[in-house]
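Hey, why these numbers?
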Amino acid sequence: MVLTIIGAILIFSVIIFVHELGHFLAARIFGVTVHEFAIGMGPAIYKKQGKETLYSIRAIPMGGFCKMEGEDEESENEGAFSNKKPLPRIIILIAGAAMNILLGFLIAVSIVLATAIPNGGIASTVIDSINPESSAAAFLQPGDKIVGLNGKTVHIKRDLSFELSQTGMQECTITYVRDGEKYTDSFMPMEVSYDDGQKGYIVGFNVAMAPVNPWTVLKESFFQTVWMVKLVFISLGMLFTGKAGMNELSGPVGVVYAMNTMAQSGIYDFLFFTSFLAVNIGIMNLLPLPALDGGRVFFILVELIFRKPIPVDKEGLVHFIGFVLLILLMLYATWNDIIRIFTGGLSG
């Protein structure tokens, strides 16, 4: 567990570094003055003054910041963030999240490459063989390409598995392509039991392996990343619609326990969770909530609509209140994690 905690700190540090690097690079491209680029929080343990920017590493290996001129105050400086046009400001703000998502994609590429070569290829959605006990065996045949399940598009095998996990033992519709023609039929999933005692649901076929080449690797990695983005929004939707309760929120403690579980499952599961974490942080930062990058983008969009910037002090107050609320939410989620540890809801 100690190694997992150290690993979690390192992973969070890398994710945050990449995020702040996105802001920094975009700021430099658009001529915004960056006073300090810091990794970590608290007192500085290393400093190096560049031509314009102070680079620092701080004692607490969590967080970081890219301090730009005019980010939270009025400034007469030509290089001030607040004096740039709306589009450059939006690009600078979303660059951090974009870099997080790119990091998740690159990790996915490494996983696909590392697993595809020893497995003899990349799992496709083309049927190789069918279990005769499957109800879908009545109409599916080898060579069919699965493109949809229950009206949801299927790009990769993970799309199929995820949709089945949400459906359970209910009748499903499956869409497939045969000889250039698209067909849709209904079937009942097959229930299976895994080694850990958990139940799962399958259609009842094996897929063919696609050859390993730059196109198939990038395609698989791209849709793996898309799947992660989709999962973030599905989770948020469940939270806002009440399908998932606030008591199911997880904070840093829960993330570390999840990392520990993934580490025990194998290096590739651990890397996949890291990839998902990077994408998750990127998407969450784009939400239009105060104190997040998405909240700052929202204020710029309001400025574009009403042709008048919102006073910096008023916007700053909104972001400060949002920051306090986010801290309280994180503390609540951490408390949930602690409760689950003592009640057996978390294991690792």
